[in-house]
UniProtKB/TrEMBL annotation:
Catalytic reaction(s) noted: D-glucuronate = D-fructuronate; aldehydo-D-galacturonate = keto-D-tagaturonate
One GO molecular-function entry: glucuronate isomerase activity
Gene: uxaC
InterPro entries the record matches: Metal_Hydrolase (IPR032466), Uronate_isomerase (IPR003766)
Entry protein name: Uronate isomerase
Length: 469
């Protein structure tokens, strides 16, 4: 066992639950990975080219890493994060890596530290901690390995024991990389997911032009409400033809609406003309969540709602570097009132699956678990984003299980752009769930045979079932 990771990582210290946790983990640690929601780049699997260098693979694209370093005064330019206007940033991988290594101590106690040490130890066979003194040795070893055939994307996909992975593409994407994967004959299962934010959110940059492009792609008249909805149906069918089993919606809130068709058409007309009324723009987003749920009822796509993030909180960083640069901040989120219009419309549908995530942990026991514990269509997504951590996962189980149980949750998904960290993230989730189950066994609240069955469900079966994979 590599010294950077302990075999009893995240397990209880007491003898009885520790023994049970070890047994449970032994039964699930080698299960295939089902990654039903994520943001890895499909071109990696399509082209199967060697990754450029350790920094470009492990540091530059990972907002968990550069947001922490930025908070301590390290410029994004010095970490190689590209600017929108093409102004110069650091491009030397070794220099970027050294800066990261010099500041690696900042990640003590964070899930990023757990994931990264796992990658170093289990993927690259590195046993000494990353520091300024070891940075060059680590860099040289990783850079050498990345040139090997068995460190290319498809080989890593197979080495990671990934059964299926979902990428996420916008509604206007031509899915050419997925087509290339299909044409290549490779049997790795990479599917897409439908992310229509750019054509359902009036505050999304270029919204009007995006609707024009949606019309051009589909041949539908996106100047009318009926044509606009038909365009979505057509794109959803196109995404399904490339394996999509889910749509994904990153709305600022969980607000939904259920307007009459006449009222929805009138609202769309105002939005299409460029309404600057914030109430109308919010109402349109809310209506579109319900419209997407109704389409999911018809076409079978699982509906994922990822609300409650104040995206691009720093306007200056957004203007210079664009989206997804670490400045997305959790907000308080209401679900009981916000989801009621959608649930009034489709919440009792037994063949529909709506998966709700949250960045507001105060809603777990008060709102989300009771809702998922009674509405057949509603399921709870796992601890997400800022709470994708050992403590966050424990809190999720502790605050939702009593009311929603285990079977109204959907297992784990890694939701990551950081491809090499996928096994680490699933390993952490499996360990935390095994530790939680072991505690229930030790407290005589669960039989050990039930815990073994649940461990399999939480690690593998629930995700396949919920996402129809």
């Amino acid at each position: 066992m590599a010294v950077l990771t302990h075999p009893d990582l995240l397990f209880p210290s007491e003898t009885r639950p520790l023994s049970v946790a070890r047994d449970l983990y032994a039964g699930v640690k080698n299960l295939p990975i089902v990654s039903p929601h994520g943001h890895t780049d499909p071109r990696w699997y399509a082209l199967n080219e060697a990754f450029a260098d350790p920094a470009q693979l492990l540091v530059v694209p990972d907002h968990y890493i550069f947001r922490m370093l930025f908070s301590q005064g390290v410029r994004l330019e010095d970490l190689g994060v590209p600017t929108l206007d093409g102004s110069p940033v650091e491009t030397d991988g070794r220099t970027i890596w050294r800066r990261f290594a010099e500041h690696y101590h900042l990640f003590r106690g964070t899930p990023t530290r757990l994931w990264f040490d796992h990658v170093l130890a289990h993927l690259f066979g590195i046993e000494e901690p990353l520091t300024a003194a070891t940075a060059d040795r680590h860099y040289d070893m990783i850079a050498t390995l990345l040139q090997w055939e068995n460190f290319r994307p498809r080989a890593l996909f197979e080495r990671f024991n990934i059964e299926v992975i979902a990428t996420t593409e916008g509604a206007l994407d031509d899915l050419k990389w997925h087509q290339m994967i299909r044409d290549s004959g490779w049997d790795g299962r990479v599917v897409t997911a439908y992310r229509p934010d750019a054509v359902v959110d009036p505050d999304f940059e270029g919204f009007s032009a995006n609707l024009d492009q949606l019309g051009e792609i589909t041949g539908c008249d996106t100047g009318t409400w009926a044509g606009y909805l038909d365009a979505h149906r057509q794109r959803r069918a196109f995404f399904k033809s490339f394996g999509a089993t889910a749509s994904d919606h990153g709305h600022p809130t969980a607000e939904t609406a259920n307007l009459s068709d006449a009222a929805a058409q009138e609202l769309f007309n105002r939005i299409r003309r460029g309404s600057d009324d914030e109430r109308e723009r919010k109402l349109f987003r809310a209506q579109m969540l319900t419209e997407m749920a109704k389409m999911s009822r018809d076409d079978g796509l699982v509906l994922q709602i990822h609300p409650g993030s104040w995206r691009n909180h720093s306007p200056s960083v957004f203007q210079r570097f664009g989206r997804d640069k670490g400045f997305d901040i959790p907000t308080r989120t209401d679900y009981v009132t916000a989801l009621k219009p959608l649930l009034d419309c489709v919440g009792l549908e037994r063949d529909l699956t709506v998966i709700v995530f949250t960045l507001d942990e105060t809603s777990y026991a008060r709102e989300l678990a009771p809702l998922a514990g009674v509405y057949p269509a509603l399921k709870l997504g796992p601890a997400w984003w800022f709470h994708d951590s050992p403590e966050g996962m424990r809190r999720f189980r502790e605050m939702t299980t009593e009311t929603a149980g285990f079977y109204n949750t959907v297992g784990f998904n890694d939701d990551t752009r950081a491809f090499p960290s996928i096994p680490a993230r699933h390993d952490v989730a499996r360990r935390v769930d095994c530790a939680f189950l072991a505690r229930l066994v030790a407290e005589h609240r669960l039989r050990e045979d039930e815990a073994h069955e649940l461990a399999q469900y939480l690690a593998y079966t629930l995700a396949k079932k919920a996402y129809r994979l």
